[in-house]
Design a protein that fits this description.
Layout (H helix, E strand, L loop, with lengths): L2 E5 L9 H10 L4 E4 L7 H11 L2 E6 L19 H18 L3 E3 L11 H21 L3 E4 L15 H9 L7 E5 H6 L4 H7 L4 E6 L15 H9 L6 E4 L12 H7 L4
């Protein structure tokens, strides 16, 4: 099964946030992702999504200074209080939006801090967050990013991420499986998809290199989309790319897929 969602944080940025939801619906999407909640007021976001008739598939816990090149929050010793505050705000907003999946958010290893200290803090933060999320009916997700663009990012290894899910998180955290990051990390995507399928809670994609729309890079999207469509996966597959032109002009890949013979 293949159901596409789209990011209204990376895409449709030609428009104010409140107008991106309707634009996504006009493009044929039934669900959206919001990576940066602080762009708008939660009530306004909820109203815009409701009026457009789209559901919110995924939101991120606030990442602090990560998007500006800083360390972020989720695995940074000394920032646990800020992480908890962002988590609580995100869970409240996700509940308002009817969103049942929340990405924990990435972090970097600060200079002079041991990686193990950061990993320990990440594990402790997630273990703190789990009962709060579960009480709200929300599933937390983690995502390994790519080491090419983020050599100091804490989680870049798929197998380590899965080991966390199966170990200290006891299967209570889902895997956010991003095709773009997997390809840049030289992961065998079909093999990883099959092997870790039971943990995959959300899929994202962009072409590589460049993180643009499908067809601008080297990824075999017809093959990968077919793989997902032919699997029992029932979640959303999220377009999360930086459009190379106005967003509405970047959906040849979507039109091509919708025109695919049954």
């Amino acid at each position: 099964m293949l159901r596409f969602s789209t990011s209204v944080s990376l895409m449709f940025r030609e428009l104010p946030l409140a107008e991106r939801f309707a634009a996504a619906a006009r493009a044929g999407f039934q669900a959206v992702e919001i990576q940066v909640l602080m762009e708008g007021r939660p009530a306004d976001i909820a109203a815009a999504a409701h009026d457009a008739g789209v559901s919110v598939a995924l939101v991120n816990v606030g990442m602090g200074d990560f998007l500006g090149g800083g360390a972020g929050l989720s695995g940074v010793p000394g920032r646990e209080q800020v992480f908890q505050e962002e988590l609580l705000q995100t869970l409240e907003t996700a509940s308002l939006l009817g969103c049942t999946q929340v990405h924990i958010g990435p972090s970097r290893i600060p200079e002079g801090v041991a990686r193990q200290a950061c990993l320990d803090r990440y594990i402790a933060n997630v273990q703190m967050a789990l009962p709060l999320a579960e009480q709200a009916g929300i599933r937390l997700l983690l995502e390994p990013l790519n080491r090419v663009e983020g050599p100091s990012v804490l989680l870049t290894d798929l197998e380590e991420a899965v080991a966390l899910i199966e170990g200290p998180f006891a299967g209570r955290v889902g895997l956010q499986f991003d095709l773009y990051h997997m390809v840049l990390n030289q992961v065998d995507v079909p093999a990883a998809f099959r092997h870790h399928f039971h943990h995959i809670a959300h899929i994202q994609f962009a072409d590589a290199p460049g993180r643009r729309q499908p067809g601008t890079g080297s990824i075999d999207f017809p093959g990968l989309f077919g793989m997902i469509a032919d699997s029992p996966y029932a979640g959303w597959t999220g377009a999360e790319y930086f459009p190379a032109q106005p967003t509405a002009d970047t959906f040849a890949w979507l039109e091509s897929w919708h025109g695919r013979p049954a």
